[in-house]
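> call design_seq(struct)
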């Protein structure tokens, strides 16, 4: 398995650790002009859960890959946190904000992979 896939699996594990919902991986790697290779999109049911998911993802990536994000924006806004790992952008929303921005369909040529929620 290639490094990007392992990296994304670690992100998914970090999301699942805090019971994030609706995980979607958008593969943008074949789209000219895309800002990165992958989006990993999910939501939490509350602002506190969104922040907990962001912390968990950052911890998982640091522990398993020794990488810190290039940037992390949105902490404290209670709506949307974006974590930038260069080739992979992680988007963590509250449900209403996720529905409004609809990132899954913004890049309509992306290949989407949905990850089943765990209970």
């Amino acid at each position: 398995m290639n490094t990007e896939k392992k990296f994304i699996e670690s992100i998914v594990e970090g999301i699942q650790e805090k019971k994030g919902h609706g995980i979607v991986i958008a593969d943008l790697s074949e789209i000219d002009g895309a800002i990165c290779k992958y989006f990993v999109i999910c939501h939490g049911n509350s602002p506190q859960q969104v922040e907990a998911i962001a912390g968990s993802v950052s911890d998982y990536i640091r522990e398993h890959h020794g990488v810190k994000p290039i940037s992390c924006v949105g902490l404290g806004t209670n709506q949307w946190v974006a974590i930038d790992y260069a080739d992979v952008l992680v988007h963590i929303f509250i449900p209403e904000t996720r529905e409004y921005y609809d990132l899954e369909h913004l890049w309509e040529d992306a290949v989407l992979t949905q990850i089943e929620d765990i209970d």
